[in-house]
Design a protein that fits this description.
Helix content: 40-55%
Largest sheet: 4 strands, antiparallel
Strand order of the largest sheet: 5-4-6-7
Bound molecules: zinc ion
Distance between the termini: 37 Å
Shape: globular
Low-confidence stretches: none
Amino acid sequence: MRDEIVEDEDVRLAVYRRFAETGLEPTVGWLTTAVETDDGSLRSALRRLEGQRHVVLGGGDRILMAHPFTSVPMGFAVMGDHTLWWGGCAWDSFALPHLVPGEPSVLVSTTCPNCARPLAWTVGREKPPPGKEVAHFLTPAAHMWDDVLHTCSNQRIFCDAECIDAWVAREGLQRGYVMNLPMLWRLAAGWYAGRLDRGYTRREPAAAAGYFREAGLDGSFWGL
Ligand SMILES: [Zn+2]
Ligand SMILES: [Zn+2]
């Protein structure tokens, strides 16, 4: 049992470091070589990691996400001094400079889902970027993992509240949670801390609620 746990953590770390250091998708083939195991053991480890929500797998055990990293486009690109990433959602994109060593400041770019206007911010560790734009989260926290790709794909940044309202009406959706850039930055700053380190464990629900509250979030949307 102990060996299995160590091996899963080796795989998890290899996935995260590959994403962090290169922005590239860690493929099954690459991982098998990196952790020196066989194809079957690697795939089994990935499925256990998926069960623990460390990775999101697609067909053929392709790694689609290892939050905050993603191998598929979700509307954001993040450019550091050395590395270019797909950004995941707004939350994930704003988290990258806090998480990745050697990339304390990144360019986060996207387009407004309503009017397609190009939007970009230089996001660092010290303080939130200036800007009047607002982030819209469609899926309440309790359901974020029901379909996490859909959830992340719908955590976007809009020009303003008018663009959110127009988009929600056009798509026939219910307005979710809206936050300004400082709140998004606070939410992203520490949420993924530790994921590049050995022995990382996910936050318990009570700790997550405390973190959300400290970031300034409120209401049933966040389970608070
Ligand atoms: Zn807009
Ligand atoms: Zn996300």
